[in-house]
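User:
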Amino acid sequence: MQSVYNYSFDELVTFLESIGEKKFRATQIFEWLYRARVSSFDEMTNLSSKTIEKLKEHLIIDNLEVETKEVSKDGTIKFLFKLPDERFIETVLMTHNYGNSVCVTSQVGCNMGCAFCASGELGKIRNLTLSEMVLQVLMVQKELDKENRRVSNIVVMGIGEPFDNYDTLLKFLRVVNYPKGLEIGARHITVSTCGIVPKIKEFADFDLQINLAISLHAPNDVLRSNLMKINKRYQLSEVMDALNYYFVKTNRRVTFEYILLEGVNDSLAHAKELVDLIKATDEVGKCCYVNLIPYNEVSTKPFKRTSHEQAERFFKVLHDNNIQATLRMEHGSDISAACGQLRAKKERRNG
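Assistant: Predicted structure:
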């Protein structure tokens, strides 16, 4: 049977009409699922027994199985979820001064093959379904319910390339934003891409004000192509042109994610190149933000974390050239912090 979480609101309306139910039932069901967070249709007390039996004939209310849960001393929690096909995905809860943020995975594995990342070590197996994406947020929310806290922010930058699972991504964004459901504000949701140019342009036409982040990680094509295979397909000039198009269409600020790798992309010359790259980008350069990220080292990768002192020097170059930037605080450095690391360990043990 189909998971009820595999339905967007509009799809649920269509389904209910197909079984002879009124469309307003969709709002009731969404409220029970995402606000009351019930675990069975029988708990939906404003539905008739006849309606409940119809739902049970076609749908199930399921969960993700928690295979492992690691808790950091800073409060970060990393979940390894087991899927029905025996595959594994990661989801991370991070606590900030502005709220509780969930990092959501969009694929089992990843085909982008970034040199520094654990996520792509085993390759892409498949895209996640809508229910598998939505349930990551719900499972974390149920954990927070124990302390009367709520998910306030979502970042889709876990395992996988979100724009490589584009249609499901858009459904997911609508579901978590829906006002009768989890009601996560669009401006509190960020989608990160490594730079799939056609989808950046397509995303500019999406009607929700979702934030866009670009995994940049290098200020020139030679270095970026060495670190990120996607740059061999869409080079920096194309990515920046697409971002200009996105900004003109949406008037929304773009975030550049930049992982600092010791001796690779963290020199002051790299920082100056990054300044030049951003300032040469007509529109985006006027309204962007650089997120400098400490590298969570992966045992199977040769890359090392930039020292805090060098990271500060890199940041200062950006700041002195009027580029808005932050040096991101570390989260979960004492657990399997790198994206895909916990899953990779499990898959290697099973393999």
